[in-house]
Write a structure and sequence with these properties.
2 domains; elongated; mainly alpha; single chain
Length: 95
């Protein structure tokens, strides 16, 4: 909400004419860095590399997660098959 007539500062001035409006310097700095960063090739390359590293870390984490649960699933199946085999041997001995 910016603007001389319809922005937030204008609305505040309508309610309290003595109010002092000071624009947020952190926001100004952020806007300046965004504007300058879009025009500097090195900044764009660095941000691209950081993004690639983050994607790689996410993929590696997902792969580790899947491998862990795949191994756990295999272990559960293995135990189930062992119990079935033991039951089969027991039934065979009874017969």
């Amino acid at each position: 909400m910016k603007g001389e007539y319809k922005g937030l500062a204008a609305r505040v001035r309508l309610e309290a004419s003595t109010a002092l409006h000071i624009h947020c310097y952190a926001h100004r700095l952020n806007l300046a860095l965004q504007d300058s960063g879009e025009n500097i090739k090195e900044v764009l390359n660095t941000l691209g590399q950081v993004n690639s590293v983050l994607i790689l870390l996410k993929v590696r984490t997902i792969k580790k997660f899947l491998i862990y649960y795949h191994r756990a699933f295999i272990n559960i199946l293995s135990k189930q098959f062992q119990s079935i085999e033991l039951d089969y041997k027991h039934i065979k001995e009874l017969g």
